[in-house]
Design goal:
The complex is a heterodimer of chains A (351) and B (510). With 351 residues, chain A is of the alpha/beta class. Chain A has 13 helices and 16 strands. Chain A starts with a helix and ends with a helix. By secondary structure, chain B is α/β, with parallel strands linked by helices. Chains A and B meet through helix 8 and strand 16 of A and helix 3 and helix 11 of B.
Chain lengths: 351, 510
């Protein structure tokens, strides 16, 4: 590997003039010779609120590029800072492939903008996008609080990733979120809170594959989702409850009557996300539960004269990289999420 | 009004894979290597991913004495060593192990099957498996017929009941034994309940052949006799026969690899587009293709096939012995460790296009690839300018290692003169998608559990492939074709190069 590239793959970065970014990148890859190949499946634009946030994002990108090679463009917007220049730096993320014979590398461009320069980010990004490839925008932070910048960036994105679990008091902003994601033109949205619910959704789905158990779904009269006080626990519980209600074909009124989203009690609730979900229909019930500290969740359906064997599934908390990776693997319309969000809004208004 | 749910409403398309119905998997030959290295680790991986149904159970059936607990301990050690998840999740293992049982019995003894039946009925009551069984023949091929007959006689299989059977390769050793095995199987099981395994089809990159061909509009219009000059399919191994000498003496390269894996590669490469991705549609197209392979007359066998056997030599810098010096191999063995074939497909699409297949042991490297060589472009424009003839375009699908696709094309070299040189455009799955694919057995076991037979062989498909290779073997016998020796570490016998040379072609160096 060339020494210039060596420096960029460790902790180092190379500061460059914004106008010279593409030229510098071309030179870097040429110097790498035959032993390096550059891979890129999409443009990954990451909006960060500070230098520290950008460092965290860079660590995630470094892990992510092994599975999802991309051109990462990290944007560091600090409108409060006085300096008004647009700065740029380059970094490379490489891994060994082909039995260690070759380095497969991805590039990261970091653009820093303060004060008025923040408005230059969107057009600059546009000039740096790899042609013919989709663009994924990962907005770290709450885009509802930076709507004007978000709308400019959204215009270049095919998909938008965000994480309501990291938004303080996200459950109070669900209605605005719902309105925003419905606005045309619609990129595909993916909320990592929703991704975290994938196993919960699967576990409840697994309970009802068998027709005898499925029969109880027509009579469900109560759904109780219990959650702790962990980051984003409430918003995930609301989305989960909203999704269950939507899949059971309930309207907002039907959901308000039959669904409860309850905080659980105890000294250690701060470490708990969703604790359990229970569906009740007369004497029948389905319960999915994950106890604090356990690495498995358990699901069981009980009906008069019938009981399923408990299903246990490995349930490790997912890292941010794993959540993003899962989202990048599944390009799907956000219809189910949007419907869950709509009913979550109704449920939160009732609470 | 309450809604009646015919389908599970929570499988809303966001959760892609359906969960199999609870069932018992009975493994015949449960103390063998396949169970330990592949089957149980694959099942544990599925359990870890939450893809096994509640109530799922495994009953190991074999001769050696074991208690349930001993079997579980043995399988735990196997999972710790061969699972793709490290370390193993204690809670998932505990739940999985609760469904592991062992039945000691001789395959020949009817009592053993009666005891198995009692045990399965008990599991039905305890684990809600409702008579659903998946039998897995992981025992010696010579015992397949016996086990199937005993299963039927013991009332363990109801006609069109909820039972399925997976049969490991080799499925017979020639057309007549394959037909006999099919008859034995279908006397007890209906054809849709039979899953004949070829683990090559569980490989992600083999499945990718269909995606590459039919998900990209640019290839299919060129995929025919008008544009393709010839196709080369290579499955090369650098290893020798290792400890499999006794088995290999009976099998040889043709039966061990060409009849199954290579014929599958050929079928997937050359078949017509299926009308859907349903198992029957894909398998029907494969069978149509296999039926279109022209049978070779004894005279054609002499000119269009090559047998080889490795002599001593160097592979990877190490001296390796000749095949005849390997353990459990006769010193005067005439078993082939290399086979090369030239086949023609008598159908509209491939008329006149030769398909060259070769497989060998102790070749320079481990590689499997399909190379489609296109006809040369008309030379009128560049012939005068270039000192060497233009290289034809080649599309190579690499199955292993470095799975990917490469295209060789011609480009002008930089400079003021008009020089044309071949360049290679490379796509590597490993570079584009860093993730590790699930093991082939994981995919195949899961598919068998949900009843999807797309990646398994149909009875007529197996018979078709044996019919082709039986003709070749008969030709070899009639022509007294002894295997030509080739040096270990070379690309095979000179006769194989001569076969290509007669057509004005060369083998690729993958």
């Amino acid at each position: 590997m060339s020494s210039a590239l060596d420096a960029l793959t460790a902790d180092g970065t190379m500061s460059v003039d914004v106008a010279q970014i593409e030229r510098q990148l071309r030179a870097l890859w040429q110097r790498g010779g035959e032993t390096i190949s550059r891979a890129c499946l999409f443009n990954f634009v990451v909006w960060c609120g500070s230098e520290t946030d950008a460092e965290r994002a860079t660590a995630v990108i470094s892990e992510l590029t092994g599975r999802h090679p991309c051109r990462a463009i990290v944007l560091v917007a600090e409108p409060e800072r006085a300096d008004s220049r647009l700065t740029a730096s380059l970094k490379a993320h490489c891994r060994l492939a082909d039995g260690g014979r070759k380095q497969v590398c991805c590039e990261q461009i970091t653009l820093g903008a303060a004060a008025a320069a923040v408005s230059q980010l969107a057009p600059t990004v546009l000039s740096l996008l790899e042609g013919d490839l989709p663009t994924v925008l990962w907005w770290r932070g709450n885009f509802l609080e930076q709507l004007s910048a978000f709308e400019r960036m959204r215009a270049v994105a095919d998909r938008v990733l965000f994480d309501t679990s990291a938004w303080p008091q996200a459950h109070r902003q669900l209605q605005r979120l719902h309105q925003t994601i419905r606005e045309p033109p619609p990129p595909l949205y993916a909320d990592l809170s929703w991704t975290r619910l994938a196993l919960w959704r699967k576990l409840i789905a697994d309970c009802f594959d068998e027709p005898p158990f499925r029969a109880m779904l027509a009579q469900v009269e109560r759904v109780v989702v219990r959650h702790g006080g962990g980051p984003g626990a409430r918003v995930r519980a609301l989305l989960y409850a909203g999704w269950l209600a939507a899949r059971l074909g309930w309207t907002a009124d039907g959901a308000r009557d039959r669904v409860r989203v309850e905080p659980c009690e105890g000294d250690d609730v701060a470490a708990i996300g969703i604790e359990s979900v229970e569906l009740r229909a007369g004497d029948a019930s389905a319960l999915v539960r994950k106890d604090l500290g356990e690495s498995v969740a358990q699901a069981v359906v009980s009906m008069p004269q019938m009981c399923s064997l408990p299903r246990r599934q490995a349930f490790a908390p997912m890292t941010e990289t794993a959540l993003l990776s899962q989202q990048l693997d599944q390009v799907a319309p956000h219809t189910a999420y949007e419907r869950a969000l709509q009913l979550a809004v109704a449920l939160e208004q009732t609470a | 009004m309450d809604t009646l749910f015919i389908e599970n409403p929570f499988r809303d398309g966001v959760i892609p894979r359906c969960s199999p119905d609870p069932c018992v998997l009975v493994i015949f030959g449960a103390t063998g290597d396949l169970t330990r290295r592949k089957l149980v680790p694959a099942l544990y991986n599925l359990a870890h991913e939450g893809q096994l149904p509640t109530g799922f159970a495994v009953v190991g059936f074999a001769r050696r004495p074991r208690t349930d607990e001993e079997f579980r301990a043995e399988m735990r050690a196997a999972v710790e060593r061969f699972s793709r998840f490290h370390p193993i999740n204690a809670a998932v293992w505990e739940n999985f192990a609760r469904g592991l049982f062992y039945q000691q019995a001789d395959f020949t003894a009817p009592d053993g099957y009666a005891a198995l039946r009692a045990r399965l009925e008990q599991l039905d009551r305890e684990r809600g498996t409702a008579g659903r069984r998946l039998f897995y023949l992981a025992c010696a091929p010579s015992e397949f017929g016996l086990v199937i007959e005993r299963l039927g006689a013991a009332g363990l299989v109801q006609r069109h009941g909820p039972q399925r059977i997976i049969v490991e390769k080799p499925f017979g050793s020639n057309l007549s034994s394959a037909r006999h095995l099919n008859e034995v199987l279908t006397a007890v099981f209906a054809e849709p309940e039979v899953f004949r395994i070829d683990h090559y089809l569980g490989k992600e990159t083999v499945q990718n052949i269909l995606s590459m061909r039919f998900a990209n509009a640019i290839f299919e219009p060129l995929w025919n006799q008008k544009y393709v000059d010839h196709v080369q399919i290579t499955v090369a191994e650098s290893l020798g026969v290792e400890t499999r000498g006794a088995f290999y003496e009976q099998a040889g390269a043709l039966r061990d690899m060409v009849t199954n894996h290579m014929m599958q590669l050929l079928a997937l490469t050359a078949m017509e587009p299926p009308s859907s991705l349903a198992a029957e549609d894909i398998r029907t197209e494969k069978v149509k293709l296999l039926r279109a392979i022209r049978r070779l007359s004894p005279g054609e066998v002499a000119t269009n096939t090559v047998r080889g056997q490795y002599d001593e030599g160097f592979v990877g810098g190490q001296h390796v012995p000749a095949y005849r010096q390997e353990p459990h191999v006769a010193p005067d063995s005439d078993t082939e460790t290399y086979a090369a074939l030239k086949l023609h497909l008598d159908n509209w699409r491939w008329s006149g296009v030769p398909f060259y297949l070769r497989h060998g042991k102790r070749l320079p490297k481990q590689v499997a690839e399909i190379a489609v060589q296109f006809k040369p472009s008309p030379a009128v424009l560049f012939a005068a300018a270039s000192s060497v003839p233009l290289q034809p375009n080649v599309l190579a699908l690499r199955i292993q290692p470095d799975e990917g696709i490469s295209i060789r094309m011609n480009a002008k070299t930089p400079g003021t003169t008009l020089n044309i040189q071949p360049v290679k455009m490379d796509f590597r799955y490993g570079g584009a998608f860093g993730a590790r694919s699930p093991e082939a057995y994981e995919r195949l076991l899961y598919d068998a559990l949900i009843g999807d037979s797309t990646l398994f062989l149909r009875g007529d498909e197996v018979e078709c492939t044996w019919a082709i290779t039986d003709t070749i073997r008969a030709g070899w016998a009639e022509n007294h074709m002894a295997p030509a020796l080739y040096e270990a570490g070379s690309w095979g016998p000179r006769e194989a190069d001569a076969m290509m040379g007669r057509d004005g072609r060369e083998w690729r160096r993958p």
